């Protein structure tokens, strides 16, 4: 697992590898904590699927302070209803597009674990990685999805739309020195109105450090996916 810190807001972003001087040097005073990063699935439309594999390539944390422009959460519906839109503007461009080069984001590469969301309903959650992070307050967590493979219960395959290939949750949490903190990132498939298509969205109400966890092993490594 590699750590990358974005420090400038250029078009492609500039990534500095761990050990280089960055805008986050001194965040947490050099102290570190551990974030056990889980994925779970709020049972919205998951029963439409025989399997729903999601491959995660990286996660990113946003420390509080400085240019704290974390923006809003991606849209989620209330009460399990179908999504009426795909969080896009009228001209078809995705709204609230992520700024991968924006200063302050700490990004952590994963080994492309794949999880089957049909095995992670409700409080069931699987840990993707244990991340060594600077202590301090954080305001946002983004998850990068490299790939999905979905089979409906009738045997047909379908694709899921993921806005900007990056799922976004804005919720505050604090990492203390030498602490092991569990963070659950809940995601769910939701139907895009009457289009028959599905959107993969984060579920803020079921995510965070206070979420209930019934730990299961539902991951496959990147090597197993090849």
Automatic annotation (TrEMBL):
Show the segment(s) annotated as Disordered: 62-114
- In its UniProt entry, the species of origin is given as Halovivax cerinus
Biased composition regions of type Acidic residues, renumbered to the chain: 66-97
The DUF4382 domain extends over 33-202
InterPro entries assigned to the protein according to its UniProt record, in alphabetical order = DUF4382
Return the Pfam families for the record.
Answer: DUF4382
**What is the protein's given name?**
DUF4382 domain-containing protein
User: Taxonomically, which superkingdom?
Assistant: Archaea
Coiled-coil segments on the chain, per record:
none
């Amino acid at each position: 697992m590699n750590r990358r810190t974005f420090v400038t807001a250029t078009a492609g972003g500039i990534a500095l590898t761990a050990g280089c001087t960055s805008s986050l040097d001194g965040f947490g005073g050099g102290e570190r904590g551990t974030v056990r990063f889980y994925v779970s699935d709020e049972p919205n439309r998951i029963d439409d699927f025989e399997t729903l594999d999601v491959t995660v390539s990286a996660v990113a944390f946003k420390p509080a302070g400085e240019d704290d422009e974390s923006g809003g959460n991606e849209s989620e519906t209330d009460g399990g209803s179908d999504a009426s839109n795909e969080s896009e503007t009228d001209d078809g461009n995705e709204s609230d597009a992520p700024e991968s080069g924006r200063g302050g984001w700490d990004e952590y590469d994963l080994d492309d674990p794949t999880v089957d969301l049909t095995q992670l309903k409700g409080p069931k959650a699987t840990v993707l990685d244990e991340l060594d992070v600077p202590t301090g307050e954080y305001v946002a967590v983004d998850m990068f999805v490299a790939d999905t493979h979905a089979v409906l219960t009738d045997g047909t395959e379908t694709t899921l739309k993921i806005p900007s290939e990056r799922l976004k949750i804005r919720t505050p949490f604090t990492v203390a020195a030498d602490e092991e903190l569990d963070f659950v990132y809940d995601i769910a498939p939701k139907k895009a109105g009457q289009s028959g298509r599905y959107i993969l969205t984060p579920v803020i109400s079921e995510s965070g450090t206070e979420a209930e966890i019934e730990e299961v092993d539902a991951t496959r490594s990147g090597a197993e996916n090849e």
